[in-house]
Amino acid sequence: MASINKADKEVTDLLTKLYSLQEETGAKPKSSAADKAERAKNVSTMGKGKKAKERGSRFLELKSSIVDKLKVVHGLLQEQADREAGRVRVAEGNNP
User: Model-level pTM?
Assistant: First the structure.
């Protein structure tokens, strides 16, 4: 299995908590913690059939897109913080 990065681990943890909430509200039958963690790791195989797999892969694409956008936003925030702290010269930043 490929190594799990921080974002994947956080998503897996959140999905595991979601499964627990669904069980507590009675929406899903009870299952073990290991079963919930395994389902969260295998998001692309949730459900049965071709449609479920397509939806799972769309979820993974969306997750990747969100993570990429958050990285860009984080970089922009860091750049702005550097500018405000005076650590960026005019030639290094975007100066219109």
Answer: 0.41
